[in-house]
Amino acid sequence: MPPQPKPVLTEGEGLHGAARVRAVTAIALAVLLALLDYAIANVALPTIAADIHVSPAASVWIVNAYQLASVVSLLPMAALGTRIGFAWLCQIGLALLTVASLFCAMSHSLLMLSLARAVQGVGGACIMSVSIALIRFIYPHAIIGRGIALNGLMVALGVGGGPTVASIILSFATWPWLFLINIPLGATALVLALVSLPRTPVSPGSFDGVSAVLNVVAFGALIMAGDSVAHHAGAAQVAGLLVAGIAAGVLLVRRQHGQTHPMFPIDMLRIPAFRIGTLVGFVAFVASNLFMISFPFTLQSMLHYPPATVGLLMTPWPVGIMAVSPLISRLSDRVPAAILSSVGLFMTSMGFLALYLLPPDPGWFNIAWRIMLAGMGFGIFQPPNNRVMMVTAPPGRSGGASGMVQIARQCGQATGAMCVAMAFGLIAHGAERDCLGFGAVVAMTGALCSATRLIWRPATR
């Protein structure tokens, strides 16, 4: 007999037993691969920049190309996922990531590498735009916080563990192997996704291509305008990009107004808990990238650690997140995000401040405990904040909510990267250290924004 098609799940029903374990494992591997592909190049930026003969400021585009392509694709991919199925879109993303990794490894110029990284970014957007939406179908509603915490752990391990993986690879091989290693991992994740991910309901209607184009222009032009400022481009270029981005954004909002399932979720942004969660997520990831991108330069250029050691010294970040993950996965369903997320970002701010105040010649332990404190705080912040955004989304809007969780993250990361590039361009000496101080201020701002939820609605969870 031919295999029977998988039944279509409804939100809140969830899978059980081995089926849930397999599906969650598939999602976890996909998310981890997507984020490793983003973060694995961070530590190697100085090495890659020297090898392909570009400046440190220009090398940030190796990160930004992935980030820009991913950001402009997230909401269109989330909308597409609601029409073709979340599982299928995740599988397409894994295939794109795997193929693009080969082209990254074969690149010998900044342009070629950036283009290959952009394709990786689209693949990552396919995965990340639907990852939390799939979790909303895999886990019963009563314990959805555990699934979101696991997703947050994978995000943190991907971003924070990328430097460690990069250091291990660079200890034995050249930088192209940072991307070649993705090929067997991507193929494994794709096979598991094909056999394990559940079918989800699909929305009727055609894909809104005009809104997708407006979304790409709006986010792309605004991000490029910020990057142009960071790299001291001419005023005419910056103004043109700003005008194009704002105009496309206005047209997008006007086109989306009144739609039942808008690509840009203006309906959900009217919900206070969702709106504050989006803002807090954005601010938190600005702070995290101020640290993640600048600190490898601090370790290598100012403290004179070799590239292979730099990633190992960044390991306490994911270790700190892993240390708090089991507790937070249970607390996030019980304790309001206004408390947990605020405490977490306060700890992250204190960790960044402690790094800013490092003595001139610190030992590895002095560095490690500060990074671990910041990582533990970030691990406390993220799952409760994401849970609020998902559970406040109306029925049938899982895709849009999942997309906005990732928009907040990736716009924050892109903004953080631009701030690092701007600091490198404006400050002749000590830019790396100044980025840490700014990161501490931004993280504290996020903590205060999160705490406002206690004032306007103490019962919001």
TrEMBL record:
GO molecular function: transmembrane transporter activity
Transmembrane segments: 21-41, 61-80, 92-112, 118-139, 148-169, 175-195, 207-226, 232-253, 274-297, 309-328, 335-358, 364-381, 414-431, 437-456
Residue span(s) of domain Major facilitator superfamily (MFS) profile: 23-461
KW NADP (keyword) present: no
GO CC, alphabetical: membrane
Compartments, record wording: Membrane
UniProt xrefs under CDD domains: MFS_MMR_MDR_like (cd17321)
Pfam families registered for this protein in UniProt: MFS_1
Membrane topology: Multi-pass membrane protein
SUPFAM superfamilies: MFS general substrate transporter
Predominant localisation class: membrane
Keywords linked to the UniProt accession: Membrane, Transmembrane, Transmembrane helix, Transport
Protein name: MFS transporter
Biological source species: Komagataeibacter xylinus
